[in-house]
Structure to design on (676 residues):
């Protein structure tokens, strides 16, 4: 298939301020990304981070202000969208409401004046690929289909032209929770089967984890980190990524370095000399993050445990866990994962220990990672 | 309501219960509908009134002894001129039809780029067109007359048709209809390999077709009923349209002429009502389509 390479992509919108000055807004900034042949990259990020714009740049629906898009070694900046071999599914499906599903699937071929028999054969094969019940949708118009059915037709319209690249723009976000789960698995199966280079935009972590071979986290038009999920989860490059990936989101505690210890409000934690060295300056403002599963709760005082109060308890039977939101002090809150059988109640006093080998330390000013679990990021203090 | 009564409807299928509120609403709507239809009923009734009833004071609303004499009077009145009534009918129908078809084609063509393409000066062009909506037709009458005179179109069909095509209302309406069509749909078509023209004919046109009904009704009615334009743009009898011809009949109001005028008004109104009835169901469709998202 195709390897997609994005090189220094920049997309700038010019905006006129009320005073008449023209200010530049970066929708995409310095994007460098390679989607390897057959790989699925899931792009996550808050709304407005530029993930859909990036998809549109790859599709050719939007021209980048600067930078190059390569398919394999071919520069495609000036190649028309229709000639890029792309199949696309939009969030709102964008089916043609006046055509039946079959018409939606075959529009591509109709425009190319393909013979009716060939079209029918392609539609049949596509229907087969998309599984049970798809055939029945073919003679209905989008208005007569449910959201899930429309989604399948949109997917059919995407794959029928045998694209070399899939661009999926939040294709599941308009489905209800149950259907989304089912469709997610179905989609995974399809991606496995086709082995097509895929660019998958979503704001849903679970989708990103399920479908993406690698995940790209975007914010304000920039890609902050691209890596497989485990890697991003374990070694986020900054506070934004750490907070964005992982459920519930990572909480941060303000701490200061003091010798071999990190001192926070109402708690302390011993760290290794290596970590202390990585931090360096004792005046540096630091944020300490830790994943809920690396926090131990006890109802009795023990060494290394510090007193805290339970604020909220969130039972999640699906995950077989309870999330215990606690606070050491007014501005020192975090969340721990406990067994579903945990019996603590809101307002209870508990004793909490953070696993010093699993902590994340960030520079509070730059938000960059200094230490992430077992890895010391090569950030020498300024 | 007692518990017993409440339980009864829930046994079978959902029974539609009429509430007091609904009764009030329907009563108001009915009264409104009756009031709205009164002028039409009066017009029809008058067209069939004999002279004695026409002159009654106070006038009687419904006709007692219906007669078709008014229509023969009309034919007579018309017979005294060189131009047959059917000629006026044809003029009106011809001009209205061409204006309706032309307006639809031009408005849709012009509205698509204004609604869906970004090009320099787009907003300026649209604003100019919208401001034209606010200028009364009478204000532009004299310059329009001068333009037509200098083009040499006075007393021709061109004078009645071409300026009418430049109406901004249609463009405004079509733009409002094209705008809600999701851009992704057009982009999907583009990715499928459709050219701009194919997108226009295969996607845009079918989707805005219902809006044409609304536009057709408005354009047809306003052109058909237009009295002023033919009055200043035409000279000869053979170029007159119905409203203008009607005035010739009602000039010099004698009793006989009054009956003829009533009959003429009735005949003039029939096509408008027919057009409305024919397109009305599409107008409803227009409304359902305009609520369409995605």
């Amino acid at each position: 298939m195709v390897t997609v390479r994005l090189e220094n992509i920049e997309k700038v919108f010019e905006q006129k301020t009320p005073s008449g000055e023209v200010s530049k807004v970066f929708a995409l900034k310095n994007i460098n990304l390679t989607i390897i042949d057959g790989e699925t990259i899931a792009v996550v990020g808050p709304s407005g981070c530029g993930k859909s714009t990036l998809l549109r740049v790859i599709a050719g629906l939007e021209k980048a202000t600067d930078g190059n898009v390569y398919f394999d070694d071919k520069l495609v900046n000036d190649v028309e969208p229709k000639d890029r071999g792309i199949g696309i599914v939009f969030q709102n499906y964008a089916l043609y409401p006046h055509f039946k599903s079959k018409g939606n699937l075959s529009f591509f071929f109709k425009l190319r004046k393909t013979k009716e028999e060939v079209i029918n054969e392609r539609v049949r094969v596509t229907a087969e690929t998309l599984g049970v019940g798809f055939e029945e949708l073919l003679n209905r118009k989008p208005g007569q289909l449910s959201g899930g059915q429309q989604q399948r037709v949109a997917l059919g319209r995407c794959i029928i032209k045998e694209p070399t690249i899939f661009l999926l723009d939040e294709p599941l976000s308009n489905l209800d929770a149950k259907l989304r789960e089912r469709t997610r698995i179905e989609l995974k199966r399809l991606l496995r089967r086709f082995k097509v280079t895929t660019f998958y935009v979503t704001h849903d972590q679970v989708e990103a984890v399920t479908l993406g071979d690698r995940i790209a986290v975007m914010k304000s038009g920039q890609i902050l980190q691209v890596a497989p999920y485990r890697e991003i989860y374990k070694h986020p490059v900054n506070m934004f990524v750490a907070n964005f990936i992982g459920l519930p989101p990572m909480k941060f505690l303000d701490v200061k370095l003091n010798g071999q210890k990190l001192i926070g409000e109402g708690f302390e934690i011993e760290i290794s000399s290596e970590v202390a060295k990585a931090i360096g300056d004792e005046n540096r403002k630091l944020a300490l993050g830790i994943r809920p599963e690396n926090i131990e709760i006890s109802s009795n005082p023990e060494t290394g445990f510090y007193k805290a109060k339970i604020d909220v308890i969130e039972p999640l039977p699906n995950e077989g866990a309870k999330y215990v939101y606690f606070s050491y002090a007014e501005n020192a809150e975090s969340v721990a994962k406990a067994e579903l059988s945990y019996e603590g109640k809101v307002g209870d006093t508990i004793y909490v220990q953070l696993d010093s080998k699993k902590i994340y330390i960030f520079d509070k000013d730059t938000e960059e990672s200094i230490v992430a679990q077992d890895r010391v990021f090569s950030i020498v203090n300024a | 309501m007692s518990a017993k009564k409440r339980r009864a409807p829930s046994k079978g299928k959902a029974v539609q219960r009429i509430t007091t509120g609904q009764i009030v609403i329907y009563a108001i709507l009915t009264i409104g509908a009756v009031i709205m239809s009164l002028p039409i009923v009066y017009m029809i009734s008058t067209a069939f009134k004999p002279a004695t009833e026409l002159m009654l004071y106070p006038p009687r609303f419904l006709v007692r002894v219906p007669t078709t004499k008014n229509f023969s009077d009309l034919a007579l009145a018309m017979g005294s001129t060189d131009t047959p009534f059917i000629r006026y009918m044809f003029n009106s129908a011809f001009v209205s039809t061409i204006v309706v078809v032309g307006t639809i084609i031009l408005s849709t063509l012009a509205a698509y780029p204004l609604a869906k393409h970004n090009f320099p000066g787009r907003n300026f062009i649209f604003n100019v067109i919208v401001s034209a909506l606010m200028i009364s037709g009478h204000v532009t009458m004299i310059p329009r007359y001068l333009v037509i005179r200098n083009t040499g179109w006075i007393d021709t069909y061109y004078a009645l048709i071409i300026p009418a095509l430049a109406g901004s209302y249609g463009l405004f309406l079509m733009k409002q209809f094209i705008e809600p069509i999701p851009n992704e749909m057009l982009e999907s078509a583009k990715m499928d390999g459709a050219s701009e023209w194919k997108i226009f004919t295969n996607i845009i046109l079918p989707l805005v077709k219902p809006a044409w009904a609304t536009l057709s009704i408005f354009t047809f009615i306003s052109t058909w009923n237009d009295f002023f334009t033919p009055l200043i743009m035409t000279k000869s009898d053979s170029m007159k349209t119905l409203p203008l011809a009607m005035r010739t009949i009602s000039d010099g109001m004698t009793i006989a002429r009054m009956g003829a005028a009533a009959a003429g008004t009735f005949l003039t109104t029939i096509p408008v009502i027919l057009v409305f009835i024919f397109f009305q169901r599409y107008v409803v469709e227009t409304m359902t389509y305009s609520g369409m998202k995605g």
Observations:
- The interface with chain B takes residues 59, 61, 81-82, 86-88, 90-98, 107-108, 111-112, 157, 161 of chain A (CB under 8 Å).
- The two ends of chain A are 45 Å apart (CA to CA).
- The first helix of chain A runs from residue 51 to 59.
